[in-house]
Design brief:
The complex is a heterodimer of chains A (265) and B (269). Chain A is mostly helical and 265 residues long. Chain A has 14 helices and no strands. Helices cover 74% and strands 0% of the residues of chain A. Chain B has one domain. Classes of the chains: A mainly alpha (265), B mainly alpha (269).
């Protein structure tokens, strides 16, 4: 238990340092809130346009689809705030040899890289996503119980772990490929799957994105928990697959790290 | 002027070599760029469930639109030209380019062209492969593309996107960090440019409004023209609007460049 508290303390110190750095550029904070918000509005506009032509998609009504899209946005924004900024710096650290400074510190490198940065702007957008979820639930006349809300929170954490696993695996490619900035494009491209209703996918697509890469579960399972209540099977499947993905990604990172050769003299 | 223009093929060649040095990066980009098509297939198949048409589209024509959009994007969208220009201005490396007897716009144009060529080379195999595989499961209608009208629209889109990128990048003379501005415009391009859905799925009033904006001529217009879903009169209107917007952004970029140079200072060797 002691190592856990030690890492938690380290994370809090890193967060405080990163927050101080972020708040030095307040105007930047507001600009990025607007930018991220515009992408969310874009997704909602898409839902609105499609539902002008149909009443239901794979059994999901318009407000249900908004719960799904907003849940996905919530997970994405929390991930963008806490973990993503550190991970995307890895290709640069490897290319410039600055990873040396991370490796010299007495803490697990994967932990230090993942938690070194913070972006406050996305947290504001995470709040907006919660508000959108609440409004959509009101439109559906659904008042979730406290256990449902707590379970929703737990599943959001599982969703974060899935995002983390995928991006960690993608940025770890940088140990093999010199300029791996495209992996970020890959991350955004692949995570479009998370916005799909699970029932829309069939065949190998559904099997692959449920069991191998559980992206169809990331936003679907938390959203379904709010909309339809507790469903033990899908929830257990989601928790199991996201843990497996995180373990594999961590192993991949370690294998890659063994290839690292400092770029400095 | 003319002797300086003879340097453009050399700039193009250097740019091409620089871009191909990172061919794995391009290959990854191309591979990942096929992902949205796959997602569109799954999503729109569910939307079309039990329906023949949505708006003016059948499932096959809509998926063909998304597939053609991938080609339009790889031919006409700048990669990281905006950030490169911004860095040149911010870090002062613009100095060495200013000393050369070559107009900056043309210099960047040659590099943009080399970037697109490198991307096309790297993307050709993954794109062809993904089209082939997807056409086994998706009813793509790639056999009846309107190339005669589509290629001018595609080239117009490249010119428009390059000139818009140039304008955005040149704001670096005044702004410390332009990434927020760039991502904001990206989101507008995605929505109002027909990247997320074809613009003719919008309600008629919004569709008419979108056609007045430059973004429609970046993606929707060339893709819809290639798909053959635009009448001749609408194409003529589109080409005129596209050229007009491209000219507007070229002139704006020229003004920004002139004003920016008056403000620009760089120290150091």
């Amino acid at each position: 238990m002691r190592p856990f508290f030690h890492l938690l303390r380290l994370w809090l110190i890193q967060l405080r340092y990163a927050a101080t750095r972020e708040l030095a550029f307040r105007a930047n904070f507001f600009v990025w809130v607007i930018v991220e918000l515009s992408w969310f509005v874009l997704q909602l506009a898409f839902v609105d346009v499609v539902y002008q032509h149909v009443d239901s998609i794979a059994g999901w009504s318009r407000p249900q689809m908004i719960v799904l899209v907003a849940t996905n946005q919530l997970i994405q924004q929390i991930f963008t705030a806490f973990l993503m900024p550190g991970l995307v710096k890895l290709p640069e650290l490897v290319r410039d040899g600055k990873l040396d400074f991370v490796l010299l510190k007495p803490a697990p490198p994967q932990f230090l890289i993942s938690t070194s940065q913070l972006e406050i702007g996305p947290l504001a957008n995470a709040l907006i996503a919660i508000v959108v979820v609440v409004f959509a639930l009101q439109e559906l006349h659904i008042t979730p119980s406290l256990p449902s809300i707590l379970l929703y929170g737990l599943l959001i954490v599982a969703g974060l772990l899935t995002h983390y696993a995928l991006l960690l695996a993608l940025v770890s490619l940088t140990f093999w490929i010199v300029q791996a900035e495209s992996v970020l494009l890959g991350y955004y491209s692949i995570f479009q799957v998370a916005r799909l209703p699970r029932e829309a996918a069939t065949g190998w697509f559904r099997i692959f994105f449920t069991f191998a890469l559980p992206l169809l579960l990331v936003a679907n399972i938390p959203a379904a928990t709010l909309l339809h209540g507790f469903q033990i099977g899908p929830i257990l499947l989601f928790l199991l697959t996201c843990l497996t993905a995180a373990i594999f990604a961590s192993l991949f990172f370690r294998i890659g790290l063994r290839r690292y050769q400092s770029a400095s003299s | 002027m003319i002797p300086s223009l003879t340097a453009l093929p050399t700039v193009f060649s250097i740019g091409l070599q620089r871009q191909l040095a990172y061919r794995w990066n391009y290959l990854l980009r191309a591979l990942f760029s096929a992902m949205p098509l796959l997602v569109s297939w799954v999503f729109w198949s569910a939307v079309f469930h039990g329906k023949e048409t949505v708006g003016p589209y059948t499932l096959a024509s809509l998926l063909t639109y998304y597939a053609v959009l991938l080609v339009v994007e790889s031919v006409s969208s700048p990669a990281d030209d905006d950030f490169q220009i911004s860095r040149e201005i911010r870090e002062g490396t613009l100095n060495s380019i200013l000393l050369r007897p070559l107009p900056y716009g043309l210099y960047r144009g040659a590099l943009f062209l080399s970037g697109r060529c490198a991307y096309l080379v790297a993307a050709l195999i993954p794109l062809a492969l993904s089209f082939f595989l997807l056409s086994r499961v998706i009813p793509l209608q790639l056999g009846s593309l309107d190339l005669a009208r589509g290629i001018p629209a595609l080239l117009g889109s490249a010119l428009l996107q390059f000139s818009l990128t140039l304008c955005l990048s040149l704001t670096s003379f005044w702004l410390l960090d332009i990434s927020a501005l760039i991502f904001l415009v990206y989101s507008l391009e995605f929505l109002a440019g027909g990247h997320v859905f074809p613009l003719d799925l919008l309600p008629p009033t919004l569709f008419q409004f979108a056609q007045l904006l430059p973004f429609a001529y970046e993606y929707w217009f060339p893709a819809a023209t290639l798909c053959g879903s635009i009448s001749h009169s609408a194409w003529l209107f589109g080409i005129t609007m596209q050229s007009g917007w491209a000219l507007f952004f070229i002139l704006l970029a020229h003004s920004l460049w002139q004003a920016g140079l008056r403000k620009y200072t760089a120290a150091g060797g």
